[in-house]
């Protein structure tokens, strides 16, 4: 999987073990999860005018909340 510079703010999640990370500019290329070695990694696209917050609950799983970033131009 190739990750381009435009995607550097996007969250990355493993659907197998719920490993989660936010991409930073010039990060690696993910082909497998670094935690469980599974190949169920998913990149969640975020627009330039959006922001998100992440939380993890053992019972509910991963919660990602998106909203418009009023400070972006």
Report the strand count.
5
**Beta fraction:** 35-45%
Structural class, please? Answer: mainly beta
Spatial gap, N to C terminus: 30 Å
* Main β-sheet, spatial strand arrangement: 2-1-3
Q: What's the alpha carbon Rg, rounded to whole Å?
A: 13 Å
Q: Count the helices. How many?
A: 0
Shape: flat
Total of domains: 1
Major sheet: size, sense and barrel closure?
Answer: 3 strands, antiparallel
Query: So what's the oligomer here?
Result: single chain
Instruction: Report mean pLDDT, rounded to a whole number.
Output: 78
Summarize the structure.
This protein is mainly beta and 73 residues long. The protein is 0% helix and 36% strand.
What's the layout of helices and strands?
Blueprint: E1 11-14, E2 20-22, E3 41-43, E4 50-57, E5 61-68
Antiparallel strand pairs: 1-2, 1-3, 4-5
What do these coordinates show?
The protein has 73 residues and is mainly beta. The chain has one domain (5-64). It has no helices and five strands. The strands form two sheets. The chain has a three-stranded antiparallel sheet, with no helix packed on it. Strands 4-5 form a two-stranded antiparallel sheet. It is flat and about 35 Å long. 5% of the residues are buried.
What are its keywords?
three-stranded antiparallel sheet; mainly beta; 73 residues
């Amino acid at each position: 999987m190739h990750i381009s510079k435009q995607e550097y703010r996007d969250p990355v999640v493993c659907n197998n073990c719920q490993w989660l990370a936010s991409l930073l500019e010039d990060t690696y290329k993910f082909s497998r999860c670094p935690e469980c070695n599974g190949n169920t990694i998913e990149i969640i696209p975020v627009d330039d005018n959006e922001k998100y917050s992440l939380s993890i609950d053992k019972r509910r799983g991963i919660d990602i909340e998106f909203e418009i970033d009023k400070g972006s131009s």
